[in-house]
Batch of 3 targets.
Target 1
Amino acid sequence: MLPPIQDKRFQDLPPQGFQFACHPGVACFNQCCRKLELWLTPYDVLRLRRRLGLSSEEFIERFTEVQAGQNGWPMPRLLMRADDPERICPFLGDQGCTVYEDRPGACRTYPLGRATKGGRDGGPSEEGFFLVREEHCQGFAAGPLWQPQDWIKDQGLETYNAVNDQFLPIITRQAPDPNPQVIASKMRMFFMACYHLEAFRQFVGQTRFSQLFVVPPLRLELAATNDLELLRLGFDWLRFAIFGDATMVLREGAAQKT
């Protein structure tokens, strides 16, 4: 099991589970929505920009700053309100989170931490949980007793975790090439397939993608209209194209055509 980073906020999960509640009646309500360093996963962006009725490019331009994340992969970080000394989340309103149903996975998970190991085959080989206890948080003082799987279900994390587990085999590795120009090209491929889904959909539909790869027609049909299916196709394509994983199958003779 991968241990969490050494941090006094991270604590072992008691066998009986953890007591927690977060609602407007808790004195610290919304205090966790400020001064954040919140990296957004591809599924986070998918949900948020769809909620706001924006294209991927519009959302990233308006609400994020793209920086080098894990292993140098370009990832969007949510921009806090620059005109506020508390650096409040841009989606925090008077009554709380204005995008609550589509809030990022990191917001949903708290106060539970999840550590995984492996994942090269599209999912973690090991999974474990721990608690994250911020000094200001008073949510532990009352509320129901939770086991990790109950919390995951209650917070709607099943799809977030499943998609993020498919993302892990990419960002946990470095682009393997000594040529910086090739690496830059792979970084652009990564960002298109993970965060600019409209551009990736155009790439799949208007290039020789289906002539080069054996992709079931139903999968291509779904990816043409379903962003989640398109994202999963993008993960498979990236793993094949960048790392040589057996996640895609080239058509016979396709190697000679490229």
Note: The radius of gyration is 20 Å.
Target 2
Amino acid sequence: MTRRRNNVTPQLKVIFHEAYVTDYPTASCETPDRVEAVIHSLRQYYEVITPTPASESDIRLVHSEGLLKSVKADAGLYRAAAMAVGGAILAAKMALVGEPVFAAVRPPGHHASPNSHWGFCFFNNIAVSLEKLIQGGEISCALVLDIDLHFGDGTDNFFKGRKEVVVANIQENDRERFLKEVDRALTSHDYDIVAISAGFDRHVNDWGGTLLTEDYFTIGRNVRDYALSKCDGRYYAVLEGGYNTAVLGKNALALCRGMSSGG
């Protein structure tokens, strides 16, 4: 990993592991095809990095022993979920030294609270990745920019009342207001790092019916510009929702192009 020099953004990288396409027990709409569509689109343009699984001690930074045991009861599910947390941790570590990253993980995580989970989520990938940086003394203030259609209650539950993390769940059904709320979240504070909970189910051809593909480029570019000017280029994204596989890959690619140096 190389630190950013001379205000030049390193090329974005993508994190992916074959464990993410495991057919573990979950809702019928949260299929391996989702992450396959994403990685098929992204690997044509970006280097793909393989993560290692999160340790149990990493997972315990956010989750209770009871929740950990409940996920471990299914070996295939646990392997995928631990690898998803590991992917988010790797993304955060790379972002910390100024390397932009998109973690194409599965299962998603933003509905996983310390003691419970739902909504196709099992461990809170982005929460663990940030808490590990906080506990390591690497950051003192982070923004979670959650652009998923659904409110990221798990992330909000864990960080509520914590001064180290601001969780901005963008919950506007109007396209222009949505983009304005993204900008407001970015400009409301100075952060050490920006983490995008990258859900794509608000697209016009997905469940939300609001955003255009070009809007994901705009969001990625605005995050990039903020991070380059305010927090030494520290930013990363972790996949959450998005269920129309016909458009999911191109939407993820649009976000990554916005986040990357070449556009």
Note: The mean pLDDT is 95.
Target 3
Amino acid sequence: MPLLRSGGFDAFGWGTEELALACASHGGEPEHVAVAARMLERLGLEEGDLACGPHEPLASRGARLAREGGQRLTRLHNNCSGKHSAMLARAVQLGESTAGYERAAHVVQQDCLTAVSEWTGVSSDAISVGVDGCGVSVFALPLANMALSYARLVRAAAEGDAASRRVVSAMTSHPFLVGGTDRFDTVLMDACGGNVVCKIGAEGVHTFAIVDRALGFAIKVEDGAPRAQYPAVLALLAAYDALPNPLPDALREHVQRAVRNTRGEPVGMVRVGDGDVGDALELSL
């Protein structure tokens, strides 16, 4: 948001693809890597300037292509390379050092903290700051305030706030860049035709919004395991009639997820239990 509102984003000649990747936890596929590399090139920087480390692509297609091509995995394959590139852009725009941009005391992370405070309604001094898996600052917030930030985002977009509208539009018009070929966020946003904007988080966190109703949601799987995450997201959206009918097969498989043993035999099922949705709806409101 600080980069968009200040005009810095446009000054670097970036477009909707770059913005979508800046909002992504992408799958490390060739298309994602290419956009991230292009972002750095426009900044006059290179892969080594990213503070995030390399890891295997999160999308199965990305992992397969990297393996079959004998590619060396780089920081560009990191699912957060787009966000990191945008943070580097903010440092360059401000004339600040790009070294250490990921640290909590750096002006870029202070900008992030201020923006998170503004959108969530939690004062900066009440937000606990840790270190995320990708190396940047991560903020501890109540679920209700996470949900509020998404509701505020889509409402601001609907009411004509240019920066908010651009974020929502970029994510919903380029869902592949936000996730990837087999990634849940991509499949869901594509299936909902732009009326749902969503973003996965670590440790069983998911935040999303129904655009035309300005409703924001946040869930957290208590033990951090992702097995319950997607069924819960779909159950909440179904309760608000925000899913397409019929549900695409790629989403239907998440409504009731089979548990299989090492021989591929179904031995159980993950599903939303009776009464669980009601409890979740009360919290989301």
Note: Strands lie at 128-131, 137-140, 196-200, 205-210, 215-220, 257-260, 266-270.
